[in-house]
Amino acid sequence: MSKLFAEFRMGDTTLKNRIVMAPLTRSRAPDDAADERVALYYAQRATAGLIVSEGTPISREGQGYLFNPGIFTAEQIAGWRLTTHSVHAAGGKMFAQIWHVGRVSHPSIQEGGKLPVSASSKQAVGATAFGYDADGKPALVAPPAPRQLTTAEVARIVGEFAQAAENAIEAGFDGVEIHGANGYLFEQFMNPLVNDRTDQYSADQLENRLRFTLQVIDAVVARIGAGRVGIRISPYGQLFDMPLYEQIDETYTALATEIGARQLAYVHVMDQSGFPAPGTEGGGGGPKATFINLLSTMKSKLPDTALILAGGMSRQRAQDLINDGIIDLAAFGTAYISNPDLVARLQNNWPLTDAKRETFYGGGAEGYIDYAPHQG
User: Fold this and answer.
1) Burial of 2 (C-beta count, 10 Å sphere; 0-12/13-18/19+)
2) Average per-residue pLDDT for the chain
3) Does residue 283 or residue 83 have the better pLDDT?
4) Mind listing the pLDDT tens digit for each residue in 199-212?
5) How far apart are CA 237 and CA 251, in angstroms?
6) CB 3.0–4.6 Å: which of 236, 275, 309, 342 could bond 285 by disulfide?
7) Domain ranges of the chain
8) Any idea where the NADH:flavin oxidoreductase/NADH oxidase N-terminal domain is (predicted)?
């Protein structure tokens, strides 16, 4: 049997295969809380070794998209409990992706119409959030220049991540994934061309640029244990106006070293090295070969931490990378939207159903829970 379909121990969790359902924003929670329809959607996909939930905001401030189920109120915790119960009943395992978008938000989403917050006051030029337009209708909107967080506010957000992790466990999740990728708040601190702070989180030293990320990791680990914590990162990504910088390899190698020392359950890497960057005015990411070299270096720093790769994944690529020891688990994103039985399709070489892109975000059951399993 291929390693791809074999059982795998990841931190405190045993997975029935090495296939991961990547986090996918679907904007199907009108009250910002998961409901029975969300529960059915995830339960349909529970044959994955691991499901990572769509990004779930840790606070109203951390939200950048309408209709995303959060993890910071009692109602949201109860809503997610419906999902985790359904996934577990179907034999699956599920982590909650906990999320703060930073500057990629809009006053129409923020409490009291406040500005979004970030490591600096630099605007994400060309980026889009999903908020309300001038007529009060849901629409893609341009994030304004954010307000720079004070040092005390950064500490508050660290605490909110820890509380979100505790809330996720209360909601029945098997663990959490810290969303450190895709141009959101963590990258806004790590990127020296965005971060212009002068305090302990300044960009003048690598230690300072990583401080916020490591503080959140440590706070979450202290609350729920390292074996139930993962983190998602995207080296060479340029989503939402993230410029490339010279110290990318140094930054992520150092981060991997710190994560390896903490023995987290996993690192989930998003490969953005070869495709255009939607939501920005710029082009794609860095060279593919450079990315793979960095991935191999990071793997060497993670002896007791699983490495997941997402982006451009296929059955053959997943098997090759796992067999070569470059990654431990393979994450599939878009394929899971229209193929709830993806594991069986990959295992049997059945054809994949194409997704209807116009139903990716928002709406009802269509394009969400109405995709049928393969009819053999």
Assistant:
1) middle
2) 94
3) 83
4) 999 999 999 999 99
5) 13
6) 236
7) 3-329
8) 3-351
Task: Please give the DSSP secondary-structure letter assigned to residue 367.
Answer: T
The whole-number pLDDT of residue 11 equals 97
Can you tell me the distance from the alpha carbon of 344 to that of 136, in angstroms, rounded to the nearest whole number? 44
Of 38, 32, 40, give the one whose Cα is nearest residue 63: 32
Task: Name the pTM for this structure.
Answer: 0.95
At 365, the amino acid letter reads A
**CA separation (Å) from 168 to 44, 103, 112, 292, 338?**
21, 24, 27, 33, 26
Dump strand ranges (E) for 11-107: 13-15, 19-21, 50-57, 94-99
Token pair 């997402």 is found at 310
Active-site residue among 41, 65, 184, 361? Answer: 184
Give the pLDDT score at 29: 94
Under DSSP, the state recorded for 146 is: P
pLDDT at residue 213 tops 80: yes
Q: How far is CA 30 from CA 127, 235, 351, in A?
A: 23, 33, 33
Per-residue model confidence as pLDDT tens digits over 100-119: 999 999 999 999 999 999 99
Could you confirm whether 184 is annotated as catalytic? Answer: yes
Residue 319, token pair as written in the block: 């098997």
How would CATH label the architecture of 3-329? Alpha-Beta Barrel (3.20)
Q: Which residue in the block uniquely carries the two structure tokens 């906990």?
A: 98
Quote the distance between the C-alpha of residue 266 and its chain's center. Answer: 13
Q: How confident is the model at residue 272 (pLDDT cuts 50, 70, 90)?
A: confident
- Give me the torsion for CA of 158, 164, 166, 170, rounded to 10°: 180
* C-alpha span between 65 and 179 (Å, rounded): 15
